[in-house]
Amino acid sequence: MIYDFDEKAETKLFGQRLKNLRKKRGITQEELAHTTGLAVSTISRLERGAFTIGVNKLPLLARGLDIPVADFYRELGY
Fold first, then answer.
1. Are 32 and 63 in contact, with CB atoms under 8 Å apart?
2. R_g (Cα) of the chain, nearest Å
3. Cα–Cα distance between 57 and 61 in angstroms, integer?
4. CA–CA–CA angle 67, 71, 72 (5° rounding)
5. Per-residue pLDDT tens digits of the chain, which is 78 residues long
6. CB under 8 Å to 37, separation ≥6 — which residues?
7. Is the Cβ–Cβ distance between 29 and 44 less than 8 Å?
8. What pLDDT shows up at residue 1?
9. Alpha-carbon distance 53 to 60, whole Å?
10. 8 with 58: CB under 8 angstroms?
11. In degrees rounded to 5, what are phi and psi of residue 37?
């Protein structure tokens, strides 16, 4: 099976998922930035789908949201 990968669409979906997870936990972008060591502007760009993050940074986001890394992708069907 060949999977057609649409990078822009995947980046947008990831950003929406990140934002939903953050809001569900009642965490501001500033709080998430503080706990992850990432800049607030990075969090904002990620949530808007304007930026991608390397897999090596996913554990930082997961820890900041208190979730397993796999939760980012579960909703996307991976």
1. no
2. 12
3. 7
4. 110
5. 556 778 888 899 889 989 999 999 999 999 999 999 999 999 999 999 999 888 899 999 999 999 998 887 776 566
6. 60
7. yes
8. 52
9. 11
10. no
11. 85, 5
Residue type, 73: Y
| DSSP per residue, 42-75 | HHHHHHHTS----GGGHHHHHHHHTS-TTHHHHT
Token readout for 8 is: 């822009």
Scored b (16 or more CB within 10 A) or e, 44-78 reads eebbebeeebeeeeeebbbebbeeeeeebeeeeee
Query: What are the structure tokens assigned to 33, written together?
Result: 């930035």
pLDDT at 6: 84
Residue with tokens 């993050």: 53
* Angle (CA) 53 31 74, round 5°: 45
